[in-house]
Amino acid sequence: MPSAFKSNNTVLGSSWHALAILGLNRITLSGDLGLRLLWHIMHLVVSIWYFVLGLTNTLESFFISSGLFKRYRCLDISKVQYLAVVIDSEEARETLKVLELLRWLAAIGLKKVCLYDEEGVLKKSKEALTLWLKSERMSKETTSDQLFEQKYMSLEVISFSDSKHAVAKAANFLFKKHYLSANTEKPKLTEPDMADALEALGYGALEPDLMLIYGPARCHLGFPAWRIRYTEMVHMGPLKFMKFGAIIKAIHRFTTVHQNYGT
Amino acid sequence: MENKEHTLVTRLVGSLVSYMRRFLFRVLSVGPVPNHLAFILDGNRRYAKKWNLGEGMGHRAGFLALMTLMKYCYELGVKYVTIYAFSIDNFRRRPDEVQYVMDLMLEKIEGLLKEESIVNQYGVKVLFIGNLKLLHEPVRIAAEKAMKATSNNNQSILLICVAYTSTDEIVHSAQECCDEIRSSMKVNEEKDVKSDLIKLGDIERHMYMGVAPDVDILIRTSGETRLSNFLLWQTTDCLLYSPKALWPEIGLRHIVWGVLNFQRIYPYLEKRRKKQL
Which residues span the membrane (chain A) (predicted)? Predict the structure, then answer.
């Protein structure tokens, strides 16, 4: 009898223990579900905010393009000596959209533009883009006046191979130049040495003043680090929703920025 | 009696605020939490001017904001926090301002090592990143002492970039690679070098920031949209966020907003990282 009683107690005890664990698990599960629900609500609020912001920006871009805002009518384009446009590689496959963007930039009066996408999609389209620029130039040219030709845009197209890999190649160049000699003294490499090495290997040296980023996020996607020390970076949203007014606004904002360069 | 009641109420309110903040972080943690946050501490001087404080007071207010922000980051579960404390370009400021900042850094580095500091509270390993030889001697010694004292901490890491610029970091890395290759070569091998011996991985390994993974979110205050030669190499897949607030005004809402935006684009960043592997 006592052993049966003990056995029953043990079974009962185990059952209570199991129920307690089940109860705790249920509370934990509903707690987790509650947290998850709150998280989704937070993100829903953020999405609604961005939807409203998107509508506002679309309306603003329309008014800017129409010339309604006085401050955007006179743009000091000379402050943008060199413009970089970073495009997400997936979006860069829309060559017609890229062509339209270049046409807008040329219409604004930008003379030097650098296009970048990480995977080199734009490099494959470079020929088509350059041909378009040339045909636009030829259709508007009436004389062979050199000054008239200079009005049109020069285009540089780069990818990730011109970025981090270029620095590795430059390091090899510097090694061969400064280290492989009879001189046993340890060379001291400087920033001008690196800049000269990159230039000698044919990598672009110009630093963009302004960078327009087309893609899902405000990321520079690996644009050559050497060239973006003080570049202002603006996120323009996806390429398929690009707006002329947004470009004008970004350039206008850039013209009002004052840089101390660390001083 | 009134003072005791006031203190009790203050403590209760403080505890409630702390509980609510931790609960908010629990909710945020349902989604991906950034592993590495970087901050450009811009706006201290403008803050001092805005509130008619002495110029140096802006930097002090900035330090308080930094301590608060670090607490938030470590509570959220961010493992790496990097701050741009002093650029090589900043040495071109007025000598009295440079001296003030150096003195402040020395004071604060020594403060970090005290038992009750945030470093010990959260088990933070402190690393000073940059060309430390350019620092004033007492600051450099204090920095080395702080790194040694916290070397066994492993819960989280604080990287303080001083005498740092990305371009200097890249040149330093190239130099280290060249020195490494040369020291491993025999004399008669030097003339036969034709292929590229330095690979991209070697450059990455010798970066000052090679001790940390790439940055997930870089926050620059004061609404400025440039990186000013900070972590240009490490921000390939990094969300750049520029709140308008001056650095001493930065708060919980900015961290929360940054993390929410990071979580929105996380699938895109993950897809990019997988492509690169």
Answer: 40-63
